From TrEMBL:
<dbReference type="GO" id="GO:0032259">
    <property type="term" value="P:methylation"/>
</dbReference>
<dbReference type="Pfam" id="PF01135">
    <property type="entry name" value="PCMT"/>
</dbReference>
<feature type="region of interest" description="Disordered">
    <location>
        <begin position="239"/>
        <end position="262"/>
    </location>
</feature>
<protein>
    <recommendedName>
        <fullName>Protein-L-isoaspartate O-methyltransferase</fullName>
        <ecNumber>2.1.1.77</ecNumber>
    </recommendedName>
</protein>
<keyword id="KW-0808">Transferase</keyword>
<keyword id="KW-0963">Cytoplasm</keyword>
<dbReference type="InterPro" id="IPR000682">
    <property type="entry name" value="PCMT"/>
</dbReference>
<keyword id="KW-0949">S-adenosyl-L-methionine</keyword>
<comment type="similarity">
    <text>Belongs to the methyltransferase superfamily. L-isoaspartyl/D-aspartyl protein methyltransferase family.</text>
</comment>
<dbReference type="GO" id="GO:0008168">
    <property type="term" value="F:methyltransferase activity"/>
</dbReference>
<keyword id="KW-0489">Methyltransferase</keyword>
<dbReference type="InterPro" id="IPR029063">
    <property type="entry name" value="SAM-dependent_MTases_sf"/>
</dbReference>
<feature type="compositionally biased region" description="Basic and acidic residues">
    <location>
        <begin position="242"/>
        <end position="262"/>
    </location>
</feature>
Length: 394
């Protein structure tokens, strides 16, 4: 068995072991086998070496290339890098399966996909919906051309259109199903307006969880539950927020005080469950992390452990920051600066989650209306996050 075939078999076996193939949609597993990842992977892939993304060429290192094409179920394959930042990928196999399962796709459905990438997701959807039933929109002309070439090579009859995914594709509306392969902070109203009443929209939201929305019978709203984790790339033009170091700057801390919560609970690992090596419950960390993302959608949180304990860095991509530093003896100190006090905001959001009984990410849902959208917990009448947009009513 070649190394490529071996890696492909390993990924399939791990998906099987984890029960990652949806029971209610066996077509996804069959389609994934018929449309292997390597058919959509370019000869040059990219990997992180700890400092930057470096190229891996199939002709020079075929074994490493195979490992990148067929990584673990929760790992993406980076296919395109621009200005040192990933711009496209073959998505994690587990998330691809989960999102297609959430779409509730049936033969004959018309499908609009936003973000063609390599074309594989559109090809998978076309295997279920049928020839000529899927339209995919890609903002990058080069990626669109590659996707079209890949789709033709595997015999998938999919229309590839160059355009801004946020605008959808009004010429083919209404669609039965809409799916986005990139994360949005706000669901464009155009997606709802172009989906038929009773139709379904699946998209990663907030770069952490993906939601499945059903359009109301009058077409004036869409609502639904969070379906799972989905760490997808953001829409073009929204992923260039400043680093923590640039936001922090070199000035002195403006506020320092003890931080009494267990910072280990912020160290979420979405690919695992149970108890982490440092004793933190990683399932609870995932759910806490999602609740904090809902309450503080613009705040980025990173964590790392040292000999004194777990540390965390927060910033809003603009001018406010905080550091939660372990100082030994189980103690943590919060430093913060900028117009906002992010450590204080974090505590308030954490307290709300605790007071609500530490809800799971699956307890959250989203409603999108013409002028606003909001994320709620258990009950649509309990919004935890809300955004208003200037969108004309339908």
């Amino acid at each position: 068995m070649s190394h490529l075939a071996d890696r492909r078999a390993r990924l399939a076996a791990e998906m099987e072991r984890r029960g990652a193939w949806p029971d209610r949609a066996p077509w996804i597993r069959r389609a994934a086998a018929e449309l292997p990842r390597q058919a959509f992977a370019p000869d040059r892939l990219w990997c992180w070496d700890g400092r930057a993304y470096t190229p891996v060429d199939r002709g020079e290192d075929p074994d490493r290339w195979a490992e990148l094409v067929y990584p673990g179920p929760d790992d993406a394959t980076i296919t395109y890098v621009t200005r040192g930042v990933p711009g496209s990928s073959l998505s994690c196999e587990a998330i691809v399966a989960d999102m297609l399962d959430s779409l509730l796709l049936e033969p004959g459905h018309t499908v609009l996909e936003l973000g063609s990438g390599s074309g594989r997701n559109a090809a998978l959807a076309a295997r279920r919906a049928g020839p000529g039933r899927v339209t995919t929109v890609e903002v990058d002309e080069g990626l669109a051309a590659t996707a079209a070439q890949n789709l033709k090579a595997v015999g998938a009859e999919v229309a590839v259109v160059v355009g801004d995914g946020a605008a959808g594709r009004p010429g083919g509306a209404p669609y039965d199903r809409v799916i986005s392969t990139y994360a949005v902070d706000r669901v464009p109203w155009a997606w709802v307006a172009q989906t038929r009443p009773g139709g379904r929209i699946v998209t990663p939201w907030g770069r952490l969880g993906h939601v499945a929305l059903t359009v109301a019978g009058d077409g004036r709203s869409a609502s639904g539950w969070v379906q799972g984790l989905a760490a997808f790339m953001p829409a073009r033009g929204t992923g260039g927020d400043r680093s923590w170091r640039r936001v922090r700057g070199d000035g002195p801390s403006e506020d320092e005080r003890p931080f009494t919560r267990d910072v280990r609970r912020l160290a979420a690992d979405s690919g695992n469950s149970g108890t982490s090596a440092d004793g933190a419950d990683s399932d609870a960390a995932v759910h806490l992390g999602f609740a904090l993302r809902v309450a503080l959608p613009e705040v980025r949180i990173t964590t790392a452990a040292d000999e004194d304990g777990m540390n965390a860095w927060l910033h809003d991509g603009d001018s406010s920051w905080a550091t939660l530093s372990a100082v030994g003896g189980g103690r943590t100190v919060a430093d913060q600066g900028g117009p906002r006090r992010l450590a204080d905001e974090l505590e308030r959001a954490w307290d709300r989650w605790s007071a609500a009984g530490e809800p799971d990410l699956y307890d959250f849902g989203m409603t999108v209306e013409p002028g606003r959208q909001y994320v709620w917990c258990r009950d649509p009448g309990d919004p935890w996050w809300q955004a208003e947009d200037h969108v004309p009513a339908p």
